[in-house]
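User: I'm writing a short report section on ligand binding and want a predicted complex to refer to. Could you take this sequence and norvaline and write out the structure as tokens? A short remark afterwards would be nice.
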Amino acid sequence: MSKNPKHFLTMEEFSYKELGRLLVLAAKMKKTPAKYQKVLNEQCLAMIFDKSSTRTRVSFDVGMTQLGGKALLLRGDELQLGRGEPISDTAKVLSRYVQGIMIRTFAHKMVEELAEHSSVPVINGLTDTHHPCQVLADLQTILESFKKLKGLQMVYVGDGNNMAHSLMIGAAKTGMHCKIVCPAGYQPQTSLLSFAQREGGKNGARIEVTQKVQGSVKGADVVYTDVWTSMGQEAESKKRLNDFQGFQVNEELMAESPKAIFLHCLPAHRGEEVSAGVMDGKRSRVWDQAENRLHAQKALLATLMAK
Ligand code: CP
Ligand code: NVA
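Assistant: Sure. The structure tokens for the complex follow:
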């Protein structure tokens, strides 16, 4: 057990170089998975889920198995955590049993607290504010299409949510320009935008926010969107449906940049944030993107947990 394990909570933890190394490892693991079957021999990852999941849950579970380890699925409401045991005590106890903890929950503070008291690496599998594991897979997918990240232009159209935050930081870290196109009142958090802009400045990446949809995709290499109503915001869904009118990624918007690929973290709502034609069209890379969750996270698990 380490006193200072490396955690992965926001994408801020890795430098440009470290991210590059991780993505190279992810590509190798995708190409020759058999070479990595013992990397996490007999190690165990606890996975705490307070929210639904298909991709995160399955890719981490399968990923641990493929690396020679095991994943334990723990639903937050079935742990003593759900009956009031402090997250700090949970962290200390789990650290005595497992070699890594992955958590998907609501408040980002909860993950920070878990990490603070854990002596094993903690991985953020999505909070209301960040979704860094998704961005690792996104970067791998973009690399596969363009063979580089630096200097590319990504345009994210939609809610300034957890995905927008992690994409801005991921782009800034890797020297990719990133434009967030969102309605008034749905901008990314100012402090995270400032951080991404500072970080982007160091790596030659321009990080910007606009409310103007028309013309926003011109010159884009990657067009990205996410749901208008995230998990935990269901009560606002009617208002959001209204507020996001005009922010759909459809054929007309994609026509502004014929070279652009389309990405979506999934699950998708065809007819809302994306038209069915774009989602299932030739320029969509969403299934490769979903597959890459497995490879990118295996590289992450190996980087954080291998002895
Ligand atoms: N993209 C993503 O995190 O999917 P799940 O919610 O299915 O895990
Ligand atoms: N913004 C979405 C991402 C799902 C992977 C949500 O938080 O529900």
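A remark for your report: The chain has two domains: 11-131+292-305, 134-289. Strands lie at 44-49, 70-75, 100-104, 122-124, 153-157, 177-181, 207-210, 222-225, 261-264.
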